[in-house]
Amino acid sequence: MSHQESLTAYLAAFVAELVHSGISDVVVSPGSRSTPMAMVMAEHPNLKVHIHVDERSAAFFALGIAKITNRPVAILCTSGTAAANYFPAIVEAHYARVPLLVLTADRPPELREIGAPQAIDQIHLYGHHVKWFAEMALPEKSVDMIRYARTVCSRAIAIAGKAPAGPVHLNFPFREPLIPQLDENLFRLTERPQGYVKVHSGELLMGDGHFQQVAARVDNRRGIIVCGNIADERFANAVTMLAEVLKFPILADPLSQLRSGKHELKNIIDTYDTFLRNEEAKAFLKPEVIIRFGAMPVSKALTFFIKENPEADQFVIDGGGDWRDPAVLSTDMIFCQETSFCEKLLPYVKGNSSPQYLNDWQQVNTVTKESMTKVRELPELSEGKLFYQLAELLPEEATLFVGNSMPIRDLDSFFLTNGKNIKVMANRGANGIDGTVSTALGAALYAKSMYLVLGDLTFFHDLNGLLAAKRFNIDIHIILVNNNGGGIFSFLPQAEHPKHFELLFGTPLDLEFEHAVKMFNGRFTKITDWEHLRLEMEKSQDIKGLNVYEITTNREQNRAEHREFWQFVSQEISKFVKGEF
Amino acid sequence: MSHQESLTAYLAAFVAELVHSGISDVVVSPGSRSTPMAMVMAEHPNLKVHIHVDERSAAFFALGIAKITNRPVAILCTSGTAAANYFPAIVEAHYARVPLLVLTADRPPELREIGAPQAIDQIHLYGHHVKWFAEMALPEKSVDMIRYARTVCSRAIAIAGKAPAGPVHLNFPFREPLIPQLDENLFRLTERPQGYVKVHSGELLMGDGHFQQVAARVDNRRGIIVCGNIADERFANAVTMLAEVLKFPILADPLSQLRSGKHELKNIIDTYDTFLRNEEAKAFLKPEVIIRFGAMPVSKALTFFIKENPEADQFVIDGGGDWRDPAVLSTDMIFCQETSFCEKLLPYVKGNSSPQYLNDWQQVNTVTKESMTKVRELPELSEGKLFYQLAELLPEEATLFVGNSMPIRDLDSFFLTNGKNIKVMANRGANGIDGTVSTALGAALYAKSMYLVLGDLTFFHDLNGLLAAKRFNIDIHIILVNNNGGGIFSFLPQAEHPKHFELLFGTPLDLEFEHAVKMFNGRFTKITDWEHLRLEMEKSQDIKGLNVYEITTNREQNRAEHREFWQFVSQEISKFVKGEF
């Protein structure tokens, strides 16, 4: 058996199994040690191979594909620091529960830890941030070793996908020569040609006894439901039906996908981030029960509200079986698939006899919405109004990806319920500003129409990511909110300490991004006013490729506007709560 | 004791101790959780605080400062994926033995692993790639805790600096509020105001008995000395004196800093990468003894030569006490500080009675150099000739930083001994193409005049790094060898398999980098011919700021030229060895 035959058969079996196990996209970064795997992958007719030079961007690009398709995506790089560049996206995937199959090429054991070039210690390289790590055996062609390669592949993908989903790392040692033998029978498997082992993976489901207990504690009480992102598409219907019977309002995080869609929207509360800053509203709406699904919401106001109600029964439901309770106030941790929880609880609850509490929430929400129309009057380009406008301007079934720091918070405050089925995405696993451009571009590959809103620091951090737009001809509309620095710091206590503020936090970049956009063959448009934005958004659906729309704002003015707005709305809400309406 | 007082006193003590322990540069990336440390650092009059938005570039920038100053540099970032972005530079620092003090801010224990925003598991985040990790205690102001903060600081810096040098990671949990109280007595320490504990760190030194044994085995034999990079500046004199007595040629890797300088140059062999491709030369120069210092050399030809002489006594000297022997042929591992080894061995060796073997090496080297002048005749811009020219064109005491992949190999082949005291640098810990721009810029802060030569993929990979040039007004001359893709792959076996070659390995970017250079306020010059390059290099010393000179080459033509050249030189060497000269 020649080296080349062993190498080829082993990798062909692995790659064939990748496809049988549901992988359709791989993101490959060029390198030498990874040559055999890259060449075998490129040969497979059912595998889309995306080449991305910068491994940091590459991994985020894969994350974006995995997020929008809800399917695991594989990434491949060579040995050395290439693999270390994957780390930020792996950490994000771990906390955001996105399945990634991380494949790294390595020196064989005899070339490790002896100063060989480009050899680093890749064993458990990503520590606790992957769900599983396996050091693969050297390629062999025996029946046993082919079975091994196929099993590990299927197993790794299953582990990445099962709740809570996340990244898995396989490290492949390869000896030279690194060239496989490609022929037309490459992927013809003698044993079990349709896939070696299919993984049937169960979910966390609870028995009836539990539901009886929970029902008794939530029925006929003043309760709210708080929803973060849940990947399961059936969840929206299940939770809205439960809320309707319980007469609980649903406080829908912008990433919950509940603010728009085909489900029942009437119990959805979307302006809580604004009205829960008002002490009177908080007292008026005091809950006895809080049921929470998914990650903690973006809204700090809501987080404080949850913290300020320690006497409420707080149920945290997690299908991943994890402990998601930063308020440290849960009375009940429920490890159960979220849709199933809603559906199975339903027959046990009698339902609330009075809709009063729900009505209170709905009315405060309505008052807030009405006073929010004040935002509409702002004549100058501003960060909050942008999202208010986007809800009107974005097309049906658009995907809106938002950067972290200020945009996600403005989205939360100002992007309200609408009937357009707009999918909202962000990297909220670890809330980093890194990799945003690449994640959005990966998602854009499979999105109907992609709109990305992000700040200048976030845009700069992943400028390299734009290469994907150019190389893969991706259609994307990027709204760059350029306030020349870190806008969020103006809202933090350090803003009161001017001495080192601009140096350490303001960090103005003073960059004209038009140059970079040109380099990547993009179209750059400087938005002059709201009317200009409207016109650009209206025609955007017919415009292909990379499009960047810059909106210049001012950090100081932005802060003042936000404060003024919150103050105004707060007064209106107080009037309502006091019955002065 | 208020929270703010504790926070301030603890961090002020830590930062004061940083300075007492020899840290003068910190590279800080903006963030919220790291606010208290950043503010205290900015307040210290003897600390240079460099702000860098992209943590990946920031860490490489710090690496560059540490490499050129031979002093530890601190880096600081906030919690979350920010810290993960440090990973590539940490891995490089680990293998390149560069001291880095990595400071990460973190959520306090009660906010970890419960789904709190921007909280990731930062305990042992960098695994085996740091020399020491410590999870710091929460800030307190008691005498004991101030002593603790100062001791850990001093200790961490000592560990980072002692051989083998490398990165150390301290993780700081901070509770809100995050604002310290800055006043003029901030750094006034009551106890031991001039530094808490000074670390006196010894080196690996051997006893006389060992040297007698080694001397007996190297005296009067056909031996060679192979030198990689050794940070100790006294090493050049010590090793050249030893070589002169032993009559051993010194095969000087371009990063050994032995190819130019004030030491004795006559036994330095600088064209071995070319002539050791010739079988007759290898047989003619067969050694009985190989003494090797530092990392493995860049040259593959030399690596093969070492491997092809298993019967030789192979001594590997490492002051870091590590096992640097990828050829797996060492007969003797010598854990001893390298300069001391040379100096202490000298009195025990009688010296070689015949200079014949040394003369043979010198003559082959001379013949090779003479036939290399053929490169000079190449009329068109080409990658090999570039380095040949640079040895002539660079100014006295310039620093030449080279990218990995092709430039370092061409440097090895074509950048020959010269009397200009040119310092040569590269990232050869893990040989990555990442972070090159940033490392060179960090080094440029303290270099007399910095010239960076790198390929287009390497330039692209760290394009963000250019922000430092703009923000800190760094003077740098970047020679961008643009062959539109991965040039090195044309020299690897996959070049014979055209099917997926351009997709997987050639990876043409088709970017006009002029746009990016403009965005960073740089001067972009497209070099038209050799005369143009000469003129630009001549006036370069008077030109400040960021300067990029693009040299467009062709991958196919480059490969053909290299092959042709090696063939020609090989024929000349064969003639000489056979006595046909």
UniProtKB/TrEMBL annotation, chains A, B:
Keyword Transferase on entry: yes
The residues covered by the Thiamine pyrophosphate enzyme N-terminal TPP-binding domain are: 13-124
CDD domains recorded for this chain?
Answer: TPP_PYR_MenD, TPP_SHCHC_synthase
Residues in Menaquinone biosynthesis protein MenD middle domain copies: 216-402
UniProt EC number? 2.2.1.9
Query: Does the record's keyword annotation contain Magnesium?
Result: yes
**Cofactor annotation comment:** Binds 1 thiamine pyrophosphate per subunit.
Q: Name one GO molecular function term.
A: 2-succinyl-5-enolpyruvyl-6-hydroxy-3-cyclohexene-1-carboxylic-acid synthase activity
Please name the top-level EC class of this enzyme.
Answer: transferase
Q: Which reaction does it catalyse?
A: isochorismate + 2-oxoglutarate + H(+) = 5-enolpyruvoyl-6-hydroxy-2-succinyl-cyclohex-3-ene-1-carboxylate + CO2
The residue ranges of the Thiamine pyrophosphate enzyme TPP-binding domain are: 435-534
Coiled coil start-end: none
Q: Which UniProt keywords apply?
A: Magnesium, Manganese, Menaquinone biosynthesis, Metal-binding, Thiamine pyrophosphate, Transferase
Q: Which cofactor does it need?
A: thiamine diphosphate; Mg(2+); Mn(2+)
Q: In which pathway does it act?
A: Quinol/quinone metabolism; 1,4-dihydroxy-2-naphthoate biosynthesis; 1,4-dihydroxy-2-naphthoate from chorismate: step 2/7; Quinol/quinone metabolism; menaquinone biosynthesis
Q: Which SUPFAM superfamilies match?
A: DHS-like NAD/FAD-binding domain, Thiamin diphosphate-binding fold (THDP-binding)
The UniProt function text for this chain reads:
Catalyzes the thiamine diphosphate-dependent decarboxylation of 2-oxoglutarate and the subsequent addition of the resulting succinic semialdehyde-thiamine pyrophosphate anion to isochorismate to yield 2-succinyl-5-enolpyruvyl-6-hydroxy-3-cyclohexene-1-carboxylate (SEPHCHC).
Q: Which PANTHER family does the record match to this protein?
A: 2-SUCCINYL-5-ENOLPYRUVYL-6-HYDROXY-3-CYCLOHEXENE-1-CARBOXYLATE SYNTHASE, PROTEIN PHYLLO, CHLOROPLASTIC
Q: Belongs to which family?
A: Belongs to the TPP enzyme family. MenD subfamily.
In terms of NCBIfam families, this protein maps to:
menD
Q: Subunit comment for this entry? A: Homodimer.
* This protein's name: 2-succinyl-5-enolpyruvyl-6-hydroxy-3-cyclohexene-1-carboxylate synthase
Q: Which organism is it from?
A: Neobacillus paridis
